[in-house]
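B., you asked whether I could sanity-check this one before it goes into the benchmark set. Here's the sequence:
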Amino acid sequence: MGVALITPFKQDESIDYDALARLVEHLLKNQADYLVVCGTTAETPTLTDEERDELTRFVIRRVAGRCPIVLGVGGNNTRAIVGRLEREDFSGVDAILSVTPYYNKPSQEGLYRHYAAIAQASPVPVVLYNVPGRTGVNMTADTTLRLAHDFPRICAVKEASGNFAQIDDIIKRKPADFQVISGDDGITFPLITLGAVGVISVIGNAFPREFGRMVRLALAGDYDNARLIHHHFTELFQLLFVEGNPAGVKSMLALMGFIENVLRLPLVPNTIKTYEKIRLVLRELNATVKG
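And here's what the prediction gave me:
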């Protein structure tokens, strides 16, 4: 279970590095397998380049080799991404996670050439990230498999299309050493039964030990006990995303006392109605809740 790390902000919207340090320690103590820095859940589009670099260096120093770190390096300008990969220091980074180009809506051939350029430039392994609900383009199974076969540096795909037939097709036809990772907490359990190797998780920010246990039980073939934990979190899965990510998980972490409930525009915190629903579910789960 990898965790898509949030970016905590203070009330003035500056990065709260004290809260980030506490959260990183919480995740490592509770057996998160790796951390994803500057992904979607980190509100990366609202960070300046300087903030992004400082945040990345901070997490690398704090982790100090205790778990792998995956860094989000994506965008819709292929030349800019390649330039960054060739220019910047990726010491302490174990892999990059690169989202399909958004807004441009490239063809499948355009997606292939985009990732080919990234694979050839990257000094570390590359994880593809397919999330059509955010980017406006779906990378098909054929394109993913073509990239997996042609570029050994492309080691995995984070699949968040929600298309079971597509994901199953990738799992069925992929190279043996290419990994398929769930990009949605709510369907991680069924995807593991199909052959996915785990998840890059949002809810793992708040429940790393519990959700990680579900993943490990499922990977070990103990589907009955894994299913119990999966069902335990069903209502929270829905509340996490009903008003967008990371609004849901930030509400959860604020209620648990880890962070201030602050997002940067254009994202806003959950409405009071959703916030109170999350509070009630957390209480039912016996989580430590403020107030």
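One thing to flag: Residues 49-63 form the longest helix (15 residues). Otherwise nothing jumped out at me.
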